[in-house]
Design brief:
2 copies of one chain form a homodimer. By secondary structure, chain A is mostly helical. Chain A has a single domain, classed as Arc Repressor Mutant, subunit A, CATH 1.10.10.10. Helices cover 38% and strands 9% of the residues of chain A. Chain A is built from 6 helices and 4 strands; from the N terminus they run ααααββααββ. In chain A, strands 1-2 form a two-stranded antiparallel sheet. The first copy, chain A, has a two-stranded antiparallel ribbon with strand order 3-4. In chain A, a hairpin with a 6-residue loop joins β3 and β4. At the A-B interface, α1, α2, α6 and β3 of A face α1, α2, α6 and β3 of B. Chain A binds a DNA duplex through α3 and α4.
Chain lengths: 152, 152
DNA sequence: CAGTATCCCTCAAGATACTG
DNA sequence: CAGTATCTTGAGGGATACTG
């Protein structure tokens, strides 16, 4: 019985994208990376995903050229996972998904946030607190592709 | 052992979106719907997905309010699956995915297309051949959210 | 043609123990 | 802390037979 159907050679770019990142965790890892998460443990706590799965996804994302590893900035022997330009260009995808979710998957007065501050419990609003020019993506953003990316 | 982790009550809208449509088929069904596919058999042939899976996805998309059914236009007793406004608002998501895929998942001279004409084998170019005003989404499109939708 | 039902297999994912 | 290895389960998915 054929395993599962691969779509990474389909002529449709949507199909290839979905084949690569259309699972339950990859895009959430990327989202966290946009929000400044770089370390294994931080991803793990933020996502609540099993460690082996996280390990697998990080490797696959690195292999796909979406993330890259670099030596930890604090001198520890471990690695940090950083978005590559290819990964950063997933920004419009994440934003589009976020906007759609906010508009259609939340009750009228139901609060939403991409991230909750772990200590204060406060919602961290728009998309990334790191947007260099202070642009907030919602509700005003209409030009997804032109929006600035967080610093790499 | 806990089944799988649901994210449809997460405070993050990206997580909820992914929980709903972050699988290998849902977005491709939506893509085909944007391209004018409405009937079970047409989805099935276009996607090459197993019939039971397609049936399941169509039901889930209807239940999610992304598609709706209506009587077939040709008088047969069957149904057609049509995008609702909620479904149509997934347009930016599909476009973003398509653009990212085109830019990063294809070789320099490798042809890509969302759809191949079943009879001629010709690629059907930009996004939807049905865009009423002739707008092509690529490569000029920079304002995703403002782009017109195909007629419903 | 438009689905539904059944069978079965693979793999994603969770839990947890382990190593440097 | 940052991962890797192992085990187990259930969901996702494919093939195909069946019904109206």
């Amino acid at each position: 019985m054929p395993p599962r159907k691969r779509m990474n050679h389909e002529p449709c770019p949507v199909a290839r994208s979905v084949d690569l990142i259309g699972d339950r965790w990859s895009l959430l890892v990327v989202r966290d990376a946009f929000d400044g998460t770089h370390r294994f443990g931080d991803f793990q706590r933020s996502l609540g995903v099993a460690r082996n799965i996280l390990s697998d996804r990080l490797h696959k994302l690195v292999e796909a050229g979406i993330l890259k590893t670099q030596a930890a900035s604090d001198g520890t022997a471990y690695q940090e996972y950083i978005l590559t330009p290819k990964g950063e260009s997933l920004f419009p995808v994440v934003v589009a998904l976020r906007q759609w979710g906010e508009q259609h998957l939340f009750g009228r007065s139901e609060p939403h946030s991409t991230l909750l501050d772990k200590r204060t419990g406060e919602p961290i609003p728009p998309m990334t607190p790191k947007a260099r020019d202070g642009t907030t993506l919602l509700p005003a953003a209409t030009e997804v592709r032109k929006l600035s990316l967080p610093p790499s």
